[in-house]
Amino acid sequence: MVDTSALLTRQVEATVLLSGGIDSAACARLLSTQRYRVRGLFVDYGQAAAQQERQAVTKLQDFLGIEVRIVETKSVNRFGAGELIGRNFFLISTAIFLGQARQGLVAIGVHGGTRYYDCSPSFIAQTNQLAQEHTGGSLSVIAPFLDWNKGQIVAYCREVRLPLSATYSCESGTMVPCGSCASCHDRRAIGC
Fold it and tell me: Taking the mean position of all CA atoms in its chain, how far away is CA 167?
């Protein structure tokens, strides 16, 4: 497991993988309050929710007062609801390669209580090691909410007045959230 407290005190620049959802928005806000130079990176990889997420990112960008870079990748595959194996690894690699994150932090808003491997402490630790080796130790991968549950993240958002209504968290990408994907279940369970 990565000791993020030491990393958070010595880094200046933070690239946050910003999806337009609650977790990534809270991650950007947290790092901003800790005086990092935060920039968002939105990756359109052909996900069903890309248009809705991009709109949420635009709203959040204004609220957070950060620059957001948008990266689009092409694939013949279409990605809908459900687990996308390798997604977070792809996003972190994209931040380094196409987003040109070379120093400081790459931050991802994954949290505890998630059953997916790419949201686990071992995934973050291994990905961090790879990022450090690729950049001569100048870049670290962190997940500040790895020990938090979704309810704690929402409580933090309310505490710092992050507008949850500006976020979008439906994997199906419909204008009105589908209500059946894991993200919609999470939002309903925490009263959002």
Answer: 12
pLDDT for residue 38 is more than 50: yes
Q: Which tens digits make up the pLDDT trace of 2-17?
A: 455 555 554 479 999 9
All domains in the chain, ordered by first residue: 4-189 (3.40.50.620)
| C-alpha to C-alpha distances, 164 to 1, 59, 132, nearest whole angstrom | 29, 11, 33
> What CA–CA distance (Å, rounded) separates 192 from 188?
6
Handedness of CA 90, 156, 70, 10 (dihedral sign): negative
* DSSP secondary structure, 91-128, as one string: HHHHHHHTS---SEEEE----TT--SGGGSHHHHHHHH
H runs (alpha helix) in the chain: 4-10, 22-33, 50-64, 87-97, 121-134, 150-159, 182-189
DSSP state of 45: S
Q: Contact 145/111 with Cβ under 8 angstroms?
A: yes
Query: How far apart are the C-alpha atoms of 146 and 120, rounded to whole Å?
Result: 8
Neighbours of 126 (CB within 10 A): 14
